[in-house]
Amino acid sequence: xxxxxxxxxxxxxxxxxxxxxxxxxxxxxxxxxxxxxxxxxxxxxxxxxxxxxxxxxxxxxxxxxxxxxxxxxxxxxxxxxxxxxxxxxxxxxxxxxxxxxxxxxxxxxxxxxxxxxxxxxxxxxxxxxxxxxxxxxxxxxxxxxxxxxxxxxxxxxxxxxxxxxxxxxxxxxxxxxxxxxxxxxxxxxx
Length: 190
Ligand SMILES: [Cu+2]
Ligand SMILES: [Zn+2]
Known about the structure:
Layout: H1 2-26, E1 37-43, E2 53-61, E3 64-72, E4 77-84, E5 121-127, E6 133-139, E7 154-158, E8 181-186, E9 188-189
Antiparallel strand pairs: 1-2, 1-9, 2-3, 3-6, 4-5, 4-7, 7-8
Bound molecules: copper (II) ion (CU) and zinc ion (ZN).
The site of copper (II) ion (CU) has 7 residues, from strand 4 and strand 7.
């Protein structure tokens, strides 16, 4: 009888350990699978002065954002490419204002840390001889949710190359001398 009781207790303890193990394996915590957020940007020239148009997709997964797209109608060569403060793209995209800069830092290259670039300084996109820029890169800083989300802000394509802040003068540290925007679109949740 005593042996039986002990066996019963042992069985219950074993089953409870097994149940906990199964729960740990089968039901992972929510942080193991962060939500994927997808956004799209339809790039156009609202003033129709340049026949620049295209599409950009941003996918946030595991804290990084994958940015891929194709923009046509550009002058061959590099063009500054950044997210600006506002989603108001009136006045030929200039309504978007300055580069989105919630940490009040200087302009910089895309591969800089968050202290040495703006929140969404994507550097340049490179148009080929036919004026087509195809790009595909990851960004560890820009976000599609939370306090510094870029949803609803404008993604601008510029006439000139972005010097990435390398010249060090005031304009270089503000916009990389990338000149006026020639096309833009609003980052929209998909
Ligand atoms: Cu810009
Ligand atoms: Zn910038």
